[in-house]
Specification:
Blueprint (H helix, E strand, L loop, with lengths): L1 H14 L14 H8 L1 H21 L4 H17 L2 H16 L4 H25 L13 H8 L9 H10 L3 H15 L4 H6 L6 H24 L18 H6 L4 H28 L5
Helix pairs in contact: 1-3, 4-6, 5-6, 5-11, 7-11, 8-9, 8-13, 11-13
Length: 286
Amino acid sequence: MIVGCLVGEFLPKLFKVKRMQIKMPEMVPPAVSRSFSSMIPIVIVVGLAAIINFLVLMIAPEGINELIYKGIQSPLRDLGGNVVGVMLLAFIQTLLFSIGIHGPNTLNAVRSAIFTEQDLANLDFINQGGSLWDVPYKETWGVLNDMFANMGGTGMTMGLIIAIFIASRRPEQREIAKMSLVPGIFQINEPIIFGLPIVLNPLLIVPFILVPMVNIMIGYFVTVVWPIMPTPAIGVPWTTPGIINLFLGTGGNIVAVLVGIICLAVSVCIYLPFVIASNRAEKIDL
């Protein structure tokens, strides 16, 4: 991709340099003349590519892929592959969503660069008969955020939907919550983010950002600090309903289900006072 972009950028510019064009006699057919006209730029580009490749092979015998891996992939993995990196990405993701930018899509390339290798290493370890209790990487995005802090979608908005059913007396909130319930079960929460809305809503932005970070810490505590359940490192589709994904991700562990229920309850408790406050802001008597 890098070579293709560079060639596509510089080769047409070299074609336009008249001093690099080989002029053929008029009796030479135009197609043949054009091929000779571009010969010098092509030779220059191919020669430079060969020289650069030779220099890269001196540094990285396996080629430019190895150079990029060691120079970019490994540092990113080591920098972000921990609970602090997961929480930072969760914070940025929800912050972007709260101002109307799709956080998960925006950060997908960054998350993939940091965590894909770790998730694949975990799966390879499991496929070779390793225990979920002993996977090499327990602090990944797929483990801590997607399993513990994504019920209902980004911001763990299933807790918000339940909190609205419990405490809200605003009819428009309850209608949005009803419409968002089924998509939310399958981790799709754009209806409530943009319909309620959470975007640019100062009352709901705070819990929207806070809830996933709290639940990431709960997941970190029960799998790393005080491991009472196996690491949910088995990959499941992102649309798998919350709690069920924990059950499947741990190979059917009941404690994981209980932890998932606790995480959901915590999210409801955090969202509740903000839902009540939003009702009071509308001067509705609770």
